[in-house]
Amino acid sequence: MFSRQPDQALRCFVLGAASALVAVAIYQRFGSHRGSGNSEEVRKGRTSFHQTNNGKKSQIWDSPDLELRMLRKAEAVIQWRTTALTVVIERCTNDHNHSAIMRTAEALGVQNVFIIDPSAVSEHDEPTDSRGKRVQRTQQEIEQQNEHKLFAQNATEWLTIKEFETTTDCLKELKATGNQIWATDLSQEAVALVPELLQEHQQHSGPIIPDKLAIVFGTEAVGCSQELLQASNMRVYLPLRGFADSLNLSVATALVLHHLFLLKPEFVGMATEEERRELRSRWFKKLAQQRLLSSRDKKERGRLLGQISKCK
Fold first, then answer.
1. Distance between CA atoms of 94 and 78, rounded to whole angstroms?
2. pTM of the entire structure?
3. Model confidence band, residue 93 (pLDDT cutoffs 50, 70, 90)
4. Sign (positive/negative) of CA torsion 152, 153, 159, 160?
5. Mean per-residue pLDDT for 73-95?
6. In three state form, how does the secondary structure of the chain look?
7. How far apart are CA 85 and CA 259, in angstroms?
8. What are the C-alpha distances in Å from 141 to residues 93, 95, 133, 144?
9. Is 304 a residue whose pLDDT tops 60?
10. Taking a C-beta distance cutoff of 8 angstroms, is the pair 56, 184 a contact?
């Protein structure tokens, strides 16, 4: 009985070695289809390509493993940016609407935002109701306002914002840069943002949306000023189909901008190469600075910015 134990151990060893050799052979035979032979190609395959069901490689356009992912993302955003459509905000008095409009413009790829007589509301200022009576805000409302300001700051990092003290100054800049001016309005003179009605109003066979357009949004209460309405090339409104005949300013801005992109898809990416180079010089520096900070540094930076915002 004892003399058989060495034979059994040897037999088990031989069987194990044979199994390992078979496994290696199978891997070399079939595993080679999953990647290439050298480490450099395997690295490239992992970061730039993935295997499809039919055995062909297809390129991965976005993945956390991609090299220089932030620069790729920034370049893609730059290619989508438009300077042909400008958002103009005339005397917005609500912080939430102001922040939301900034975020909407940035998200939809609108680069230029003009602000007329920007609101200078601080957390210590008390808002008033429709009768002019001061309304005391709660601590939660103050904290929400600070969050809105922080969101707006994050959005404005990637926007080109110009502020004007008067409507006259803004109109001069818009006309000097060749913009057609459309003012949002709910009067009988306004034209619905519908292709047939826009074409009928313009009375020409050219494009219904000009190649360089400034769309203006007025205050929450009364809309655009008379000066701006009279100087505009057209007054427009977004057609609604319900009982409500008006929308919150930030919601209306988002819907109108999205509608304009649907009416003129060519707006996407309408920018000169010089403008793109300028964005690269600004954005890449910011991205490089952000990459130099650790997650702890970024968290501390956010905390300090929050405290600074509260002190203002």
1. 30
2. 0.66
3. confident
4. positive
5. 92
6. CCCHHHHHHHHHHHHHHHHHHHHHHHHHHHHHHHCCCCHHHHHHHHHHEEECCCCCEEECCCCCCCCCHHHHHHHHHHHHCEEEEEEEEECCCCHHHHHHHHHHHHHHCEEEEEEECCCCCCCCCCCECCCCCECCCCHHHHHHHHHHHHHHHHHHCCCEEEEECCHHHHHHHHHHCCCEEEEECCCCCCEECCHHHHHHHHCCCCCCCCCCEEEEECECCCECCHHHHHHCCEEEECCCCCCCCCCCHHHHHHHHHHHHHHHCHHHCCCCCHHHHHHHHHHHHHHHHHHHHCCHHHHHHHHHHHHHHHHHC
7. 12
8. 16, 11, 18, 5
9. yes
10. no
Residue 292 CB neighbour total at 10 angstroms: 8
Separation between Cα atoms, residue 177 and residue 126, nearest integer Å: 38
The structure tokens listed for 9 are 């151990």
pLDDT recorded at residue 106: 95
State the residue for tokens 């130099």: 292
- Maximum C-alpha span of the chain: 110
Token pair for residue 234?
Answer: 């057209």
Angle at 43 between CA 42 and CA 46, to 5 degrees: 85
Q: Of the given ranges (16-25, 142-151, 186-195, 209-218), which has the lowest mean pLDDT?
A: 142-151
Q: How far apart are CA 273 and CA 292, in angstroms?
A: 28
